[in-house]
Amino acid sequence: MKKHTLCCIGHVTLDKVVTPQSTVFMPGGTAYYCSYAIRHLDDVDYKLVTAVGDSELDVIDKMRDAGIDVTALPSKYSVYFENIYGENQDERTQRVLAKADPFTVHQLENIEADIFHLGSLLADDFSIDVIKHLAGKGLVAIDSQGYLREVRDTHVYPVDWADKREALKYVHFLKVNEHEMEVLTGYDNVTEAAHRLHEWGVKEVLLTFGSMGSVIFDGKTFYQIPAYEPDVVTDATGCGDTYTIGYLYQRAAGASIEEAGRFAAAMSTLKIEKSGPFLGNKENVLQCMKHAKEVLPLCFPHGEVRQAVVTI
């Protein structure tokens, strides 16, 4: 049985993206954005496990044609998201017009990887049993956003992650944004929130703040990662997913936390400049890191992290 370096598990979605400039229909979801972002990066054995309805099977065919290793599980429907952005691309309004079937332990028994990235879009995509099962085979990475979404009559409402204390025992990498960290921990303070998540079991806490950069905490050190200023802001959909997969790619390759964070931030900058997924390569990312203006998060509205690297 083949063991992959990185495996992303999540639903490929149908997305309706509305911005002040246009309305576009496109595939999306963590699984989609991560898979395209990583396909032109060097020396990584990557696997995607997804579940889609019949209406999106052509999207899977195109992903395979692009060189992405995909296992597509059957589902009655695909996830259908509507994302509406205003002038500020850091803010978004969502609706869910259809849901896909959740993933099960049985479906994933024969999938092996060093790192499993669970691209949760909705709270019931992955049960605790699935997280435990995968943690017994490799490191688990989770973006918290899906666990904090409850769908009622197509509208998405923010909720807390009911089983977070149990689930986070098995999570090595957790990505949260400023709002999500407060919902999960009750703290609007960066350092207190990061400490709490680490106490609950997370080994590497990734706190992202959009155009303000990011902070990564490993239990001892806070790494402040700059944002790289884009030439133009076109479409923020998928930026968080691009950041996460860039970080996991670098960590799997042996990069330090700070190196991985900077690489991930540059990937996100290149992605936001265009609609759709990141389609560049490693050299594009390195050039962005070298030439783009850095926006270093020296101070957050509710946090006391100040230095570029703070060891406690």
UniProtKB/TrEMBL annotation:
Limits of the Carbohydrate kinase PfkB domain: 16-277
Origin: domain of life: Bacteria
Keyword Transferase recorded: yes
Record InterPro entries: PfkB_dom, PPi-dep_kinase, Ribokinase-like
GO CC field: cytosol
Entry's Gene Ontology molecular function annotations: kinase activity
Keywords on record: Kinase, Transferase
Listed Pfam families: PfkB (PF00294)
Name this polypeptide is given: Carbohydrate kinase PfkB domain-containing protein
Gene source species: Bacteroides nordii CL02T12C05
